[in-house]
What we know:
Helix content: 10-25%
Number of domains: 2
Order of helices and strands: HEEEEEEHH
Distance between the termini: 112 Å
Structural class: alpha+beta
Amino acid sequence: MSRVTVFCVLIVLFLSVPLQGSSLWQSGSQSLFSDPIARGEGDLLTVVIRENTQASHEADTNTGQGLGIEVNPGVFLSDLFAGLSPSYSDYSESGGRTQRSGSIVGEITVEVIEVLDTGNFRIEGTKGITVDGEHQEITLSGMIRPEDIEKDNSIESSRLADVDISYTGKGVIADKQRRSILEWLLNWIF
């Protein structure tokens, strides 16, 4: 067979084989030139939680009143009411101080549950950990701007709006931290 014949046979075989989707690009896949970050509902991203809160409140109150009665010497009984000068004094002072602080550090993977009309995402997620019978749970919800998402598909908790972070625990240690009903009752009575 000549080269021309072999070439013609190969062209005929190539054209007769049906084309199959063996491309690197699949419809619905993300761009080859972008990082795989959250873009819509159902996508996941990691929130890096670094929250430190401190609050203090101090109040002082000072009040006072004065009223006096003075009787002038030489006042006759008929002029008693005319010669009286009333006087009264009352004073009250109070103060108070409240101080609280808290800290939570960790990471939680959340889901984009809604893409708002503004393009922002509403996110929610829960992470539960049980160690030695102690169950701890972190729940987070809030709103983020897509442009605040880092290249590694994470976002700092300080970049969230309307954020609600809840950290709760159940188990023997958590139960010991709560006051009993009897202890609460005795403290209320006394």
